[in-house]
Amino acid sequence: MRIVALSGGIGGARFLRGLLTVLEPADDVTVIANTADDIWVFGLRVCPDLDTLMYTLGGAIDEHRGWGRADETWNVRQELAAYEAEPGWFGLGDRDLATHVVRTQMLRGGHPLSAVTSALCRRWRPGARLLPMSDDRVETHVVVEDGSGRRAIHFQEYWVRHRAGLPVRDVVAVGADQAQPAPGVLRAICDADVIVLPPSNPIVSIGAILGVAEIAAAVRAAPAPVVGVSPIVGGSAVSGMADQLLRGLAIENTAAGVALHYGPRQHGGCLDGWLVHTSDEHELPRIGAAGIRAEAVPLLMSDIEAAGDMARAALDMAGRLAR
Ligand code: FO1
To answer: What pLDDT score was predicted for residue 240?
Structure first.
């Protein structure tokens, strides 16, 4: 079975790690990763979602943070702080730095991000093909408003420096309208037997991927069933700070609200099926009435086995939808 997933960082990576534990040998997984979180810092190109996926599936992730390397040290960060180098609010670990140095070196040598990613994955062997959504620059900027008025800041500044604490007026994906899907992305979507939307952020992660128009069109037209997993449980985001983003964009902070935001495929959306957490099963009728098959299963990824059970439930629903 050919499985394709559109994924952001932490939540998506943990789901996919579970998925890889419940596959048959003949199954293969292609992950189309969000690159709109990517940022230039200290002259290096940092790709948080690609790296979180690569480290998580490659067994090197720091479990507590959900990003960066396990057994990390922070000597360079401390030295940069001694120089009062900006941005002081974005932490790069010593081990993590090597990834950004190699990536920047290859980008400077003219290699596209997709080639860089497959080169880095030769070391980490994530067990899935990792594709950036695009080799072109797409950057999520968040329009915030505070005492000094309204301004657009890079997503990382909003997320890390301000801990998503500033009121959101809009989210803009700079460059999305010119960006082309990376090599292999459209082919993977067209050839997929199942397309999964893991519990990543629907605005800045999966939303950014679907913001590349040809990718969204390919998903809507794909022969494969499209099954999503709610990142919202009991009216709040399981991890990350999706709540503020959804509220800022007037998207209802519920499992049903996110499903309706993606929309049913037969009405121009991209969803055929949607998994909600057991505590949200009262929302099933509303999602079903919108034309999206919905089921309630436990959605808390307390460990790899729980993530595997969720992934199994998504694949089983896709099987029922395909018939
Ligand atoms: N998140 C933080 O909260 N603080 C950081 O200093 C930070 C640094 C960082 C460096 C590399 C990287 O790949 C991720 C990093 N993140 C940090 C996480 C990152 O902001 C988020 O994981 C994604 O952008 C959202 O999925």
So the answer is: 65
285 Cβ contact list (under 8 Å, min separation 6): none
Who lines ligand 1 at CB under 6 A?
8-10, 37, 46, 48-49, 51-52, 67-68, 90-92, 96, 156, 159-160
pTM of the model: 0.97
Cα separation of 51 and 225, whole Å? 28
The alpha carbon of 48 is separated from its chain's Cα centroid by a whole number of angstroms, namely 10
Residue (of 121, 187, 155, 119) closest to 34 by Cα position: 155
Do residues 34 and 8 lie in contact, with contact meaning Cβ atoms separated by under 8 Å? yes
User: Which atom from ligand 1 is nearest to the alpha carbon of 66?
Assistant: 22
Of 81-95, 125-139, 181-195, 246-260, the one with minimum mean pLDDT is 246-260
Residue pair 54/28 in contact (Cβ under 8 Å)? The answer is: no
What sign for the dihedral angle of Cα 41, 47, 52, 58?
negative
Reduced to 3 states, what is the DSSP secondary structure of residue 116? helix
Q: Which of 160, 205, 206 to mutate to test the pocket of ligand 1 (most atoms within 8 A of CB)?
A: 160
Tell me which amino acid residue 225 is: P
pLDDT in tens, 135-148: 999 999 999 998 88
